[in-house]
Structure formats: C-alpha cells, structure tokens
Amino acid sequence: MPDFHASIDIEAEPDTVFDYLVTADGMTAWMGEFATLEPHRGGRFRVDIAGFPIRGEYLEVDRPNRVVVSWGIAGSEDLPPGASLVSFELTAVSGGTRVDLTHTGLPDARVPGHRAGWAHFLPRLKGAGAGHALGPDDWRPLS
What own/partner pairs with CB < 8 Å and gap ≥ 24 does 73-80 have? Predict the structure, then answer.
C-alpha cells in the first residue's frame, strides 16, 4: 500500500490553520458538506465528502502542530472506517504555515481517487485558511 504525500503553504498562522482541521465549520469550509468532529484522542472524525461518508477517529491532536486521524468509508469493503491514516503536520514558516499531509494505508485501487481528492481539497484548505470565501464545492471523485 503506497503512501501519499503533499505539502502546501498557507498565509495564516498555525493556530488558524489548525482550526480548519478540528472544527466542523472549519472542515466544511474547505472539504465536505457535513462534519461531526471530536478533536481529542479517540474522538469521532466524521466528514461527508461528495456523498462519501468518511469515518474514523482522532488519533493525535497536538495544537498547533499535528493532527492524525484514522480514515475510511462507511460501507466500504476495501477501505472500511479507520483503515487508513491521514496526518497533517503544521510548521510555522515565513509568511504563514506549511502543511505536510501524509495519507497511508490506502489500497492500491484507492490511491488515484484519493490523490485527485487531495489535489482538489488542499488548495481549498489554502484558500480557506488564508481567509478567502470559497463558495460551493462541486468536486466528485474519479469514477
């Protein structure tokens, strides 16, 4: 199972970006239509993205440096809830925050769709984190 890595720089302080990973309003500003988040070790991580019910739990919450969640799709046989891991590393840099995302444990067949999803959603995180209103999101996964 290959890992997926990506990085973005956001024109905002780490504390500001962190809130986009641990609050329902923050999360749905850049990814998903609905979120139920309990940002503490063992707390629920539920985000509905383009009709897919992403389910998992928070494994690590270290404000403002790191968030790690388990990740899967309710009802999926190859990627059930909690089957993969997503980590967000936040580092203060000149002009804002660098976010390093790593997604591990994806089945090979799911990598292209998640790569396309992260390629779409990370720029949205960048915009939302910098305070831009993004408007509705009509992204859909690869078929």
Answer: 78/107, 78/109, 78/110, 79/106, 79/107, 79/110
**Which two tokens mark 28?**
């749905």
Per-residue pLDDT tens for 99-126? 999 999 999 989 888 999 999 999 999 9
The Cα–Cα gap between 30 and 42 comes to 23
Own/partner contacts of 129-137, CB < 8 Å, gap of 24 or more, are 129/10, 129/11, 129/12, 129/16, 129/17, 129/20, 129/30, 129/97, 130/10, 130/11, 130/12, 130/96, 131/12, 134/29, 134/30, 137/31
**What number is the average pLDDT over the span 1-22?**
92
Tens digits of per-residue pLDDT, 84-96? 999 999 999 999 9
